[in-house]
Design goal:
Elements lengths: L2 H22 L3 E4 L13 E8 L5 E8 L10 E5 L7 H9 L2 E3 L11 E3 L9 E5 L9 E2 L9 H18 L8 E7 L1 H18 L7 E9 L3 H14 L5 H11 L11 H14 L54 H7 L2 H7 L19 H9 L3
Parallel strand pairs: 4-7, 4-9, 9-10
Antiparallel strand pairs: 1-2, 2-3, 3-7, 3-8, 5-6
Length: 376
């Protein structure tokens, strides 16, 4: 292809993206008030949808919060909560965002917020994205579009970013980082590679990618689960003689004990018994659910957040008499499914193939996937 043809193709691509950005201008809104927070928000919050895929059949919802220090100078982060299928609202309210639930001042169906003094938005601009499609308030206009792989999800996020930056050109020069936790350990590197390759071949707009950030990332099922034995020992959850025994007998392979190795099978069963009642996400707190599994195994040492309310309607879910961290998530059901809240966030009612419903229990998808890939 001649150089003039290459230039023509690039110009046409830029014009096409600009056309798509014009279409999406009316899909972004500045939100100054939220139910549950008293007064105007002391930070800039934007919500919106950006369409990706063929004919924009996938509509990805996001929350964008500008830095409270210097939006034009501070870095910009894309934050991807794990799952896959855990809403960005989880990262915003329970992890690094400027709001958190005020549990002592919330009751019944009236959750209230307070400011998070440790929010990352004190020093950074952050896009919280509901991904992949079907997560949070992101939806599709056809049932087929809900079928998405990790690679397709990463490609859709890259398209989302290119369209987002065209609408927000004032952030093109900010240092840009792809960040996330848990299952995003799989997708973040894919997105980083797509951006890097796209910049190299001249995709528009060029993204000022500086790196990526991962917290407690999921990388590989077998290796991640195998590492839990040494982790448990380092946290003083296992006595040294037992740790030396299981390490010697299983030789680091704890997920699939060799049935012809009775010593390893025995130690793996003991490990499952000793750790089955531990809240692995917060080892100093009570476990929120107690399961008696017929065949204790290394994979029973797993996090089961939100599962107690999986079959409960948001309006009827109530914290147990004995507090556990899962009780904190009850207000997510109540708040995000409130029609007043959805109106304030500019959620499209019935916009998808089926009307989207906010489901925090989607965060369990990774656990279910692990257990299906690594049967007990």
């Amino acid at each position: 292809m001649s150089s003039s043809s290459c230039v023509r193709v690039k110009i046409l691509s830029i014009l096409y993206l600009l056309f798509l950005s014009i279409k999406s201008v009316d899909s972004q809104w500045v939100v100054s008030n939220l139910p549950g927070f008293d007064g105007d928000l002391p930070f800039t919050l934007e919500t919106g949808y950006i369409g990706v895929g063929e004919n924009d059949e996938v509509q990805l919802f996001y929350y964008f919060i500008e830095s409270e220090r210097s939006p034009k100078d501070d870095p910009l982060l894309l934050w991807l909560t794990g799952g896959p299928g855990c809403s960005a609202f989880s990262g915003l309210v329970y992890e690094i965002g400027p709001l958190k639930f005020n549990y002592s001042n919330s009751s019944g169906n009236k959750p209230t917020f307070e400011l998070n003094p440790y929010s990352w938005t004190k020093v950074a601009n952050i896009i919280f994205l509901d991904q992949p499609v079907g997560t949070g308030f992101s939806y599709a206009t056809s049932p087929e579009a809900y079928s998405v792989s990790d690679t397709l999800a990463a490609a859709q996020i890259y398209t989302f970013l290119k369209k987002w930056f065209i609408v927000h050109t004032n952030f093109l020069t900010n240092p840009f980082y792809i960040s996330g936790d848990s299952y995003s350990g799989i997708t973040v590197p894919m997105i980083v590679e797509l951006i890097s390759n796209g910049n190299e071949v001249g995709h528009y707009p060029p993204l000022n990618l500086k790196g990526y950030i991962l917290g407690n990332p999921y990388t590989d099922g077998v290796n991640d689960l195998n590492s839990r034995v040494s982790f448990a020992y380092r946290k003083a959850l296992l006595p040294r003689p037992f740790y030396e025994s299981i390490k010697k007998n299983c030789k680091g392979k704890y997920v699939y004990p060799d049935p012809n190795n009775p010593k390893c099978v025995r130690d793996a069963k003991v490990f499952g018994e000793w750790t089955k009642d531990i809240n692995v996400a917060q080892i100093l707190e009570p476990k929120c659910e107690y399961e008696v599994h017929p065949k204790p195994n290394i994979t029973t040492f797993d996090r089961r957040s939100l599962i107690r309310f999986r079959d409960s309607h948001p309006s009827t879910a109530k914290p147990s008499k004995r507090w556990c961290r899962d009780d904190n998530y009850v207000f997510s059901y109540i708040w995000a499914n409130d029609k007043t809240v959805q109106k304030a966030l500019h959620i499209r009612e019935g916009g998808g193939h089926t009307a989207p419903e906010y489901k925090p229990e989607q965060c369990l998808a990774m656990i279910d996937r692990w257990l299906s890939h690594y049967p007990l």
